[in-house]
Specification:
The structure is a single chain. Helix 2 packs across helix 5, helix 7 runs antiparallel to helix 8 and helix 9 runs antiparallel to helix 11. This protein has a six-stranded mixed sheet with strand order 1-2-6-3-7-17, sandwiched between helices. Strands 4-5-19-18 form a four-stranded antiparallel sheet, with no helix packed on it. The chain is 36% helix and 25% strand. The protein has 404 residues and is of the alpha+beta class. The longest helix is centred in the C-terminal third of the chain and has 25 residues. The protein is built from eleven helices and 19 strands. The protein is elongated.
């Protein structure tokens, strides 16, 4: 379904929606603060999810629920002409339990962990619902609004993965927005895929002097890391890898019984990611064999345990799809110069399944995301232009009744 975005923007109902967003901007900012100050650490989004579900109910969305994985869902009915369009933002932040999430305000700037990633996105969904209602806008397709869990880090996109793999609306979804990030000059049409592993090398251990010569898991780990440093990957399609976190051992005068490493493998191309995955696993095997051949295995040999702790699939959304064309039409109308890009977001899941999806910012500016000094600027001009552009893109995708 395609509608002329310019006609939507010029319509009286859209102008009424814009006016509601403008008049409600202070409330929008207040809700950013309110939601930010409800902690939502990884795997512990319950408090924020319950508060968000209450807001969906207050706004009159239908069939509001928390699904089996913890996502908050609510439907704004349209004419039902076609399948559903999902508009989502993620509930979780990267910050551990106990982090101070009190918002500090300095003029138009808000400072707090998670204030922009992705609490502003959550508040934007509420603002969109209010504006659609205030303007009396009926969409052609139903809108499924989602506050999803598990976007960050080891959450591994579990909320949106569940939505598409086991959720009750999975067969009805024709398009997917994740409202994540701020600036709208770039929006995401390509999914950076990633595989994440923890590899643990184990051995017999022993005294550093008396058991000298015994196979050492640390040497196997070093072999693996040196091999990773020599892997060659293409610049295009962009492919990367990183030895990220490591640990193990018990004492400076003991051969360790176990050491471990976590790694991140990424590519925008599924085929290249598979090749990198194969090369990494071959290095793990070579590290085990090499250390067992080098050292004394009388008391036991080196072995490796490989555990996958993350799998974000690669994918893309065609630039001639309705959702991308709507964004490319809507964003310039509000002063943005859009270009498409690649990232790792909730949109990875639908993209990998062939469902048209994009990640779109919610407006404003900010910085220091994923740090305790995270901040956003909610100065009304840029903030509102972002909300206008987002709503126009959604309507250009879902269709606005009476605008044909």
């Amino acid at each position: 379904m395609t509608q002329d975005v310019a006609r939507i923007i010029a319509s009286e109902p859209f102008k009424r929606a814009q006016e509601d967003l403008r008049l409600g901007h202070d409330r929008f900012v207040e809700e950013i603060i309110e939601l930010t100050e409800i902690p939502a650490p990884p795997f512990k989004e319950d408090r924020r999810a319950e508060a968000y579900a209450a807001k969906f109910r207050e706004l009159g969305l239908e069939d509001v629920e928390r699904d089996e994985i913890g996502n908050v869902l609510g439907i704004r009915r349209g004419r039902g002409n076609g399948q559903m369009i999902v508009v989502a933002a993620h509930l979780d932040t990267v910050f551990p339990e106990g982090t101070d999430v009190t918002v500090r305000r300095e003029g138009t700037k808000l400072f707090a962990p998670g204030v922009g990633d992705d609490t502003r996105g959550l508040a934007a969904l509420l603002a969109f619902i209010r504006a659609l209602d205030a303007a009396g806008i009926e969409t052609e397709q139903d809108l499924l609004f989602v506050g999803d869990v598990g976007e960050e880090g080891k959450g591994d996109l579990r909320g949106v993965r569940h939505l598409f793999e086991a959720g009750r609306y999975r067969e009805k979804i024709a398009g997917f927005f994740t409202i994540d990030g701020l600036e709208l000059d770039q929006f995401t049409t390509g999914a950076v895929g990633s595989l994440r592993y923890r590899v643990t090398f184990r051995g017999p251990g022993g005294h550093s002097l008396n058991a000298f010569g015994t196979v050492n898991p640390s040497y196997a780990l070093g072999h693996l890391m040196a091999g990773m440093a020599r892997i060659e990957v293409p610049k295009t399609p962009r492919t990367t890898f990183c030895a990220s976190i490591m640990g193990g051992g018990s004492s400076i005068n003991a051969i360790p019984e176990a050491v471990w490493l976590e790694v991140d493998l990424r590519s925008v191309d599924a085929g290249e990611l598979a090749k990198l995955d194969k090369a990494f696993k071959a290095l793990v095997d070579a590290a085990v064999k090499g250390e067992n051949a080098r050292g004394d295995t009388a008391n036991g040999a080196i072995r490796a345990e490989l555990t996958r702790i993350g799998n974000r699939p690669a994918g893309s959304t065609a630039h001639d799809s309705t959702i991308v064309r709507a964004a490319l039409s809507a964003l310039p109308a509000f002063g943005f110069e859009p270009r498409t890009g690649q990232s790792s977001t909730d949109a990875n899941i639908p993209m990998s399944l062939g469902v048209p999806a994009i990640c779109l910012g919610s407006g404003g500016t900010g910085g220091r995301a994923h740090s305790l000094e995270e901040w956003i600027d909610v100065a009304p001009d840029l903030s509102l232009r972002g909300l206008y552009a987002g709503l126009a893109t959604i309507l250009g995708t879902a269709g606005m009744a009476g605008n044909d």
